[in-house]
Amino acid sequence: MVQLGVFMGKKIYVGNLAFAVTNESLTDKFAEFGIVDSAKIVIDRENGRSKGFGFVEMSTDNEAMGAIASLDGKEWEGRQLKVSEARPQERRESRDSSADSRRSQSWRY
User: Fold this and answer.
1) Burial 48-87 (b: 16+ CB within 10 A, else e)
2) Domain residue spans in the chain?
3) Model confidence over 91-107: pLDDT tens digits?
4) What is the DSSP track for 18-67?
5) Position 14 pLDDT exceeds 50
6) Tell me, what's the pLDDT at 35?
7) Looking at residue 9, what is its pLDDT?
8) Under 8 Å CB-to-CB from 29, ≥6 apart: which residues?
9) C-alpha 72: how far from chain center
10) In this model, does residue 2 exceed pLDDT 60?
11) What is the pLDDT of residue 92?
């Protein structure tokens, strides 16, 4: 059972990023708080631009908690960061499933 308010992981969500932020600059920013295992800006598949958020994975829970406490709400590159523990990705329906369901509907005349 998961308890609310208990930090359960080392993966961090970083939102409201400036579009100029790169994986490297994100790594450098979080390296101030410990060892960064990975840092990834989420890129839009359609246009190849940043979606304005990303994820950082720290080597320990304590480093991750320190980074969250220090950076959440702080300004960086002209934007106020939103930094929190990453939540598991919610399961989404396939993009094709809605089209399949439309095709399977019987039409009445």
Assistant:
1) eebebebebbbeeeebbbbbbeebeeeebeebebebebbe
2) 11-85
3) 877 665 555 555 544 44
4) -TT--HHHHHHHHHTTS-EEEEEEEE-TTT--EEEEEEEEESSHHHHHHH
5) yes
6) 95
7) 57
8) 71, 76
9) 14
10) no
11) 76
Candidate CATH numbers 3.60.10.10, 3.40.50.970, 1.10.540.10, 3.30.70.330; the one for domain 11-85: 3.30.70.330
> What is the residue whose two structure tokens read 């039409």?
107
Distance CA(14)–CA(7), nearest Å, equals 16
Chain mean pLDDT for the chain:
85
Give the total residue count for the chain.
109
Please report where in the chains the tokens 């308890």 appear, as a residue. Answer: 3
Please report, for residues 95, 102, 108, the alpha-carbon distance to residue 105 in angstroms, rounded to integers and kept in the order given: 17, 5, 10
